[in-house]
Amino acid sequence: MHKLTAISSALALIGISQVANAETQTDWSAVQQCAALKEAKIYDTQIIKIEWLPAGELPQDKNAAMSGASAKPVTAGAHCIVTGEIEKRIGVNGKPYAISFQLRLPEQWNKKFLFQGGGGTNGVVSPAIGKTPVRGSDALPALSRGYAVVSTDSGHGGGSRDTSFSEDQLARFNYALASTGKVTAVAKQLIEQMYQTKPSKSFFMGCSNGGREAMQAAMRYPHEFDGVVAGNPGFRLSRAAVAEAWDNQHFLKYAPTNEKGEKIVANALTQADLDVVVKGVLKQCDAKDGLADGIINAWEQCDFKPEMVKAELGERAEQKVALLNAIFGGAKNSRGENVYASWPYDAGLNTNGWRVWKHGSSQTAEPNAINFTMGVKSLAQYFMTPHNPAFDTLTFDFDKDVAKTAEIAGVNDADETDLSYFQAKGGKMIIFEGVSDPVFSAHDLRDWYNQLQANMKDVQGFARVFMVPGMNHCGMGPATENFDPLTALEQWTDEGKAPDFILAKAGPEMSNKAKEMPLCPYPKIATYVGGDENKATSFECK
Description:
Blueprint: H1 3-13, H2 28-36, E1 45-53, E2 56-58, H3 64-67, E3 74-76, E4 79-90, E5 96-106, E6 112-116, H4 142-145, E7 148-152, H5 169-195, E8 201-207, H6 209-220, E9 227-231, H7 237-254, H8 271-285, H9 317-329, H10 352-358, H11 370-373, H12 375-383, H13 406-412, H14 420-424, E10 428-434, H15 442-455, E11 463-468, H16 485-495, E12 502-505, E13 516-519, E14 526-528, E15 539-541
Parallel strand pairs: 6-7, 6-8, 8-9, 9-10, 10-11
Antiparallel strand pairs: 1-4, 2-3, 4-5, 5-7, 12-13, 14-15
Helix pairs in contact: 5-6, 7-9, 7-12
């Protein structure tokens, strides 16, 4: 029998598919090691499917937007795909639950492991490719670099905006943090069985909820990970959910009515209104970094106030100013104390990436902004205790109800400021945040990082934050959002070269496509020092 035919027959018996014409390019020992994983014996784990995929272009990930990944095509070398389930069970609500995962194991392994973070409420197993979680980034994905990459739904199905899993106590705990540890343990056992050795380095990379998970990895599982990349992290997700309720209530309060007397949330601030605001912000703040180029690097110095453009806001100007002051001032209780951080004014506030979260585009009485379609359910079903799907978050009381988020915050939020073990073992953390993020405030991340520096010594030696002016949530906006944080992490962990800056290029929504800029470790900012304003070398981090 022909060698390829024999191997194909053997592999077919255990459910592996492979392409016949790849014979001359395939390491058959790797294929057979992949096949053997079907019989792996790991506690409370079922291997559902094994595949061998030859080198080539991979199908696009339809869920990429929720995790911040680019939709650009990916080419990868030949690799093994393991699909499995951990902790399969029936929940207290009678519904089936399991921590589903996908692990991709490249034929040419670089001896490293990367955990790919999720997005939204997870609920889907995205292709474990390890794309840089910034929509405008063209950086090489981890799988294409030779990493073994794992992804997970974190213990429930239903999609990235479904929170009905919250009925089950263990499902909540798995989503909050436990699935990271469980999937990591299983993935590392499968990696060792495939390659007969353990990973030399283990990283976690994600954006949004995946950014929260990355910070959780450093805080809750510091012994498992050598480095993390956390993008636009929902590290204080419970309070961000409170902030969404605050915004929703105020957008409804100031929304104009249509001819039927219905409130139209999208018209509370029109596109023309937001354009006026951004024009005013740029006029007031753009040049504070030494160059008026549409990028507000000195974002902390921006002292714009909506009253400055009141005369240009037209009809209902008084209400528009009041709305802007309310949402950018942050959620408050009746004593005027912030229960979530304020928000910076920036150049990316008039983009679709900002509107789609805050107040959307619907011209009906049903808002289509994500803060309404996902935020309302997540606050009532997941973040509040007791969990009550029928709770109307438009009646959320910022004096009485905030405390109801404290219980889940204790396990869900990644806001600890003691990372001493992670630091001591040599762990490295790179965090990036869009200054125009409409979901998680750059002020909140700044405040956490300042507290981390107050509580620990030599924080810059292991954890650095990079603010991206103009960038929305995990990308988009008028920003230099084409950058590569994974390479920066590799150089830091492998070579001891700390990232004094990360080179960033214009993203797809930036009008000046030639623009380059260094992203600087906070509190430094990119300051123009002369020369071609489109070249990163014309700026210094000061």
